[in-house]
Amino acid sequence: MKDAYSFDMDEAAARRSYRRMFVAYLRIFARMGLKAIPMRAETGPIGGDLSHEFIILAETGESGVYCNADVLDLPVPGEDIDYDSDLEPIINDWTRPYAATDDVHDQARFERETPPEKRLRKRGIEVGQVFYFGDKYSKPMQARSRVPTESRGRSGRLLRRRRLTPRRRLDRGPS
After folding, report:
1. Which residue among 25, 140, 151, 160 has the highest number of C-beta atoms inside a 10 angstrom radius?
2. In terms of C-beta density within 10 A (0-12 exposed, 13-18 middle, 19 or more buried), how is residue 7 classed?
3. pTM of the predicted structure, to 2 decimals
4. Which residue from 50, 48, 28, 25 is spatially nearest to 38, judged by alpha carbons?
5. For residue 134, what pLDDT is reported?
C-alpha cells in the first residue's frame, strides 16, 4: 500500500497536487492490471480533511466497501494526460458514483444515490491512499518558506525547492 501526500506553498497548489496524485494512481494501478476504485475514506491518524483510498475488489479484502457498479466501467486517463491541465473533470467522473469504505459508509445516501441493481457490497484491498493535509502539520510547526511567490512556475510548482524551516530559525525575531 502506498500513501501519497505533498507539502505545498498554498491551498491551490496543494489541491493541484492532490488531483495529480489521484489521476497518477488511477494510471499506475491500471498499468499494473488492477482496477483500483477511489473511495472516500477516513484520514486516520495522518489527518487532513480530504482522502481517497484506492481499493481493488477481492473476496479476501480487509475492508468492507460499498459502491455503484458504474465505477467499474469508468475509463482510466490515457498516457497523453496533461497533468498541468484541469484534472477536476476526471476527479468528478470518478467520485460522482457512490464509493465508500465501511468506516465512512452512509447507508441512507448509498440507497438514495444508487439504484438497487447497481449496489455493490464487497470486500476490498487498499493499494493506495491520497491525502490533502491543508496546514495540519505546517501550522503547528510554524513552518514557513523563504521561497518567494515569484519563484513558482506556470503550474504553481516551485522552480527552486527549499526545505520548510520552522519560523523561529528563519528570522529569530517577532513576526
Report:
1. 25
2. middle
3. 0.76
4. 25
5. 66
165 has a pLDDT exceeding 60: no
C-beta of residue 74 within 8 angstroms of C-beta of residue 94: yes
Number of neighbouring beta carbons within 10 Å of residue 66: 22
